[in-house]
């Protein structure tokens, strides 16, 4: 999906789908090879089992089920990374699983445990300030507080639901301005008009967006123009 070959020339980390919301063994191997060719950090992108809904629909699962889903998917991608001579660097849950874990302490801890038990050196990516990054901190993982370039925020720091008309930012310049403010000031303007304080360790750009390539280019250029050095978390 999208223009992965060109986007991977711009970003510093790639979250690779592990088959549950997108991807299959062949596309996983190709994505890993593409990331290694561009010298960018590889992360597993585990999801709820929802190919039809692209992993963006909530499914009621127990913490134990979440643990098993995450272990299974990380293991699958890690196998391809190792086979190609690379190292798995991070884990970022996808879509509904990510958003559910941002608010649910039990779910967040089960995901953090799965990551830690596979490899305590992995970095756990989670929504900035969320229960997921708190769980990662608690269990002893390095965590990355993630902010979004192409999404709007609620005043509680959560992302606006994709079911809402104002959930997505499609204008490159608007997205770049949001990112610059998040990085330099640690703040974002919510849809309610209030500023929200957020820590920004890593910036998410959705590769399946219609303007993903131009968005990535504009954001990188804007950050560099501000004298901000860009590198992977590791």
TrEMBL record:
Protein name (database record): 5-oxoprolinase subunit A
Catalytic function, reaction form: 5-oxo-L-proline + ATP + 2 H2O = L-glutamate + ADP + phosphate + H(+)
Family membership noted in the UniProt record: Belongs to the LamB/PxpA family.
GO MF terms held by the record: 5-oxoprolinase (ATP-hydrolyzing) activity; ATP binding
Enzyme class: hydrolase
Subunit comment: Forms a complex composed of PxpA, PxpB and PxpC.
Any one Gene Ontology BP term: carbohydrate metabolic process
Coiled coil: none
Alphabetically ordered keywords of this record: ATP-binding, Hydrolase, Nucleotide-binding
Stored PANTHER family: 5-OXOPROLINASE SUBUNIT A, UNCHARACTERIZED PROTEIN YBGL-RELATED
EC number, UniProt record: 3.5.2.9
InterPro entries membership: Glyco_hydro/deAcase_b/a-brl, LamB/YcsF/PxpA-like
Function in brief: Catalyzes the cleavage of 5-oxoproline to form L-glutamate coupled to the hydrolysis of ATP to ADP and inorganic phosphate.
Keyword hit for Nucleotide-binding: yes
């Amino acid at each position: 999906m999208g223009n992965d070959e060109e986007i991977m020339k711009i970003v510093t980390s790639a979250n690779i789908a592990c088959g549950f919301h997108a991807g299959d063994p062949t596309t996983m191997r190709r994505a890993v090879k593409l990331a290694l060719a561009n010298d960018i950090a590889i992360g597993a992108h585990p999801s709820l089992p929802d190919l039809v809904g692209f992993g963006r629909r909530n499914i009621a699962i127990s913490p134990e089920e979440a643990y098993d889903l995450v272990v299974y998917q990380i293991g699958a991608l890690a196998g391809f990374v190792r086979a190609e001579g690379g190292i798995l660097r991070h884990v970022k849950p996808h879509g509904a699983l990510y958003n559910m874990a941002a608010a649910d302490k039990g779910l967040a801890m089960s995901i953090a445990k799965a990551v830690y038990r596979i490899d305590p050196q992995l970095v756990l990516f989670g929504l900035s300030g969320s229960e997921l990054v708190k769980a990662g901190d608690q269990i002893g993982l390095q965590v990355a507080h993630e902010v979004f370039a192409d999404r709007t925020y609620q005043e509680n720091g959560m992302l606006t639901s994709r079911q809402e008309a104002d959930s997505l930012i499609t204008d490159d310049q608007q997205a770049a301005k949001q990112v610059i403010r998040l990085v330099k000031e640690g703040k974002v303007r919510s849809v309610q008009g209030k500023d929200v304080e957020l820590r920004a360790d890593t910036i998410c750009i959705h590769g399946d967006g219609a303007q993903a390539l131009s968005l990535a280019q504009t954001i990188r250029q804007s950050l560099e123009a501000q004298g901000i050095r860009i590198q992977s978390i590791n």
